[in-house]
Amino acid sequence: MGLKAVHFGGGNIGRGFVAEKLCLAGFEVVFVDVLDSIIDQLQKASSYTVTEIGGEGEKVNTIKNYRALNSKTHEADVIEEIATADLVTCAVGPNILKFIAPVIGKAIDKRSIKKPIAVIACENAIGATDTLAGFIKDSKNTPQDRLSSIHERACFANSAIDRIVPGQDPNAGLDVKIESFYEWVVDKTPFAEHGHPEVSAIKWVDNLVPYIERKLFTVNTGHAAAAYYGHVRGKHTIHEALEDAEINKIVRECLAETSHLIVKKHGISATEQKAYVEKIIARISNPYLKDVVERVGRAPLRKLSRKERFVGPASELAESGDKVDALLGAIEQAFRFLDVEGDDESAELSKILKTTGASEVVKKVCGLEESHPLFSKIVPIVEKVQESSR
């Protein structure tokens, strides 16, 4: 019997990154989603293409070895697939993990195969697999008398993923355009007893935290800073934003602050981190990605939250008395990402700013208490945004 992976989420990251790399590693991939349109397309099409875009040109991979199931209408089939799979992954968004946990929990409980299934959440969030595991282990999803032995049926491993998926052509169908660069790093320590799945695209490490934070506080911080400054200044794409000398300088200043934290906290050399920053700026500046600022900036409430790309590093820097001026500037521009068409969070942020005092906004949106040294620095920013948007 061949290798099998069940993947939740038939979106661009699911098809264009996770499933692509799993199929190329010899896995049959079973897509699971609740969107009828995606599942119908996957069931009807025998293949789709992933076009990797880089400075050296384009490379097209054809993805064939997959099936698709709708968990809304075929839950029993999904449970059976997971119960006999080697690996389960997801790229559904951090807020959706609690909704996929029940079916995964039922499937894990049903497993009788000796080797535990590997569970890897591929989300843009720190500790996403831990979060998913927490939902799976909830008494609603796993019988409590089975928790002590769940490690015999499943190994949960956190991961860090990095790959830019720009806006897609409206008539692309299942086909995905994606940057050629990628990084998929997974914690190997949960697999000490049974061994990890053989996926050549994955870099297996003993300590994932430096990789997660370096990526979040460099790629995501830089990408979002360029998007928010670009949006406020009327730029269309990230490339256009970074062609603006002033925005380019500001983004570099943001990354100088986060780099100071990364070097000090994780022992990465300043030279290595500087080279990483240059590589990231070159990547997000790629004109062929046609990465629209509104796409990159969407979901500002999540991106302004406590452990995310701006407040996360700024809070740690403020705690040690280090400079956070550039990050505060990016936070201000993120608070100005309001009522953007197609983005519910920007509409919600606008509503919060209109109906809530600045101190409460900082508590609610940024997750900071009044006693935190960053709190008093963000309150005037919120007041300034509220005043200018009246």
List keywords for this structure.
390 residues; alpha/beta; six-stranded parallel sheet; 16 helices; globular
Task: Describe this structure as you would to a colleague.
The chain is of the alpha/beta class and 390 residues long. It is 47% helix and 15% strand. The chain is built from 16 helices and twelve strands. The strands form three sheets. The protein has a six-stranded parallel beta sheet, sandwiched between helices. It has a three-stranded mixed beta sheet with strand order 4-3-10. Strands 9-11-12 form a three-stranded mixed beta sheet, with helices on one face. Strand 3 and strand 4 form a beta hairpin. Helix 8 packs antiparallel against helix 9. The radius of gyration is 21 Å and the shape is globular. It starts with a strand and ends with a helix. The mean pLDDT is 96.
**Which runs of at least 5 residues are low in confidence (pLDDT < 50)?**
none
Q: Any idea what the radius of gyration is?
A: 21 Å
Distance N terminus to C terminus? 64 Å
Our estimate of the beta-strand percent is: 15-25%
Query: Quick one: overall form?
Result: globular
**Average pLDDT reading:** 96
Summarize the helix and strand pattern as letters: EHEHEEEHEHEHEEEEEHHHHHHHHHHH
The major pleated sheet works out as: 6 strands, parallel
